[in-house]
Write a structure and sequence with these properties.
alpha+beta, 6 helices
């Protein structure tokens, strides 16, 4: 004679044998809160198990090269701002350094030092935003607020320097 426990186990194993799952295809992004608009991930799941994840990048493509083809060197600088909406001045610097090298132009030492200062401030502002949004995604609202507060101080310096934030 079987015990109640054995009968329950037998019933459960029969139920699990008859259990079937379907694969589910999920589109995560590009407007998903965790992707911040930069990519889409097509996720294949079987129940709660992720079987595959296929990333699709390029959602921030700006056609920069095409816009720049028929422009003068100085006319391209505003387009470099749009390459990285968080650290625009760093993108400008990279482009300007490349043009100066091609044209064999030497800029004054003071301007070089100012560029380094601005680039470092831009890097700090970018990191404050990254850490703030990451903490928000993980439930740390206070770090998000502090990061944006401190980033705002840097953006005010940029606004005084050149009018851009």
């Amino acid at each position: 004679m079987s015990t109640t426990h054995e009968r329950v186990e037998g019933h459960l194993s029969q139920s699990l044998d008859n259990l079937r799952t379907d694969e589910l295809l999920l589109n995560m992004g590009p407007q998903h809160p965790s992707t911040h608009g930069v990519l889409r991930v097509v996720v294949t799941t079987d129940g709660e198990i992720v079987k595959a994840a296929k990333p699709e990048i390029g959602y921030l493509h700006r056609c920069f090269e095409k816009h720049s083809e028929n422009r003068e060197y100085l006319q391209v600088v505003p387009y470099t701002d749009r390459l990285d909406y968080v650290a625009a001045m760093t993108q400008e610097l990279g482009y300007c350094l490349a043009v100066e090298k091609l044209l064999e132009v030497q800029i004054p030492e003071r301007a070089q030092k100012l560029r380094v200062i601005v680039s470092e401030l831009q890097r700090i502002a970018s990191h404050l935003l990254a850490i703030g949004t990451y903490s928000l995604d993980t439930g740390g609202f206070a770090a998000f607020i502090y990061g944006f507060r401190d980033r705002e101080h840097i953006l005010r310096i940029f606004e005084e320097l050149c009018g851009a934030r």
